[in-house]
Specification:
By secondary structure, the protein is α+β, with helices and mostly antiparallel strands. It has a single domain, classed as Lipocalin, CATH 2.40.128.50. About 20% of the residues lie in helices and about 50% in strands. It is built from 2 helices and 10 strands, in the order H-E-E-H-E-E-E-E-E-E-E-E. Strands 1, 2, 3, 4, 5, 6, 7, 8, 9 and 10 form a 10-stranded antiparallel β-sheet that branches. Strand 3 and strand 4 form a beta hairpin. It is globular and about 35 Å long. It starts with a helix and ends with a strand. About 25% of the residues are buried.
Length: about 120
């Protein structure tokens, strides 16, 4: 249970700070593909456990520059700017991100959260 709480804490931290690039084709659905932290390293086992229990983290970005981040059933509305590579969460504020090979990556405080595009 401590690991699950730690994963959730890391995810919230990651939403708040991030990195940069050029204007990509962002709209689509993404699901969490990797979570790493300085303290625990690769947290693939914890992600597999969440998935096993039917708990998911998904990001949906729409053509109009809006979207929703669904973190374990709790939904957070957002807007994004593909040119500036910034997502603004109504709850958490602005955060930068990188986009490469259909993967959006957020980094904060030594942790990294990656979400892979699963649907256009």
């Amino acid at each position: 249970m401590k690991k699950l709480l730690k994963v959730l804490s890391v995810c919230l931290l990651l939403i708040m700070i991030i990195g940069c690039s050029s204007k990509p084709n962002l709209p689509g659905e993404y699901e969490i593909s990797a979570l790493k932290s300085e303290e625990d390293g690769d947290m693939a086992d914890q992600l597999a456990l969440l998935k096993e229990y039917g708990l998911q983290m998904k990001l949906t970005l729409y053509e109009d520059g809006t979207g929703v981040f669904d973190m374990l059933g709790q939904k957070f509305d957002l807007t994004y700017d593909a040119e500036k590579m910034v997502i603004t969460f109504e709850t958490f504020g602005k955060t930068d991100f990188t986009f490469k090979d259909d993967v959006i990556t957020f980094e904060a405080d030594g942790s990294e959260l990656s979400l892979k595009k699963i649907k256009e």
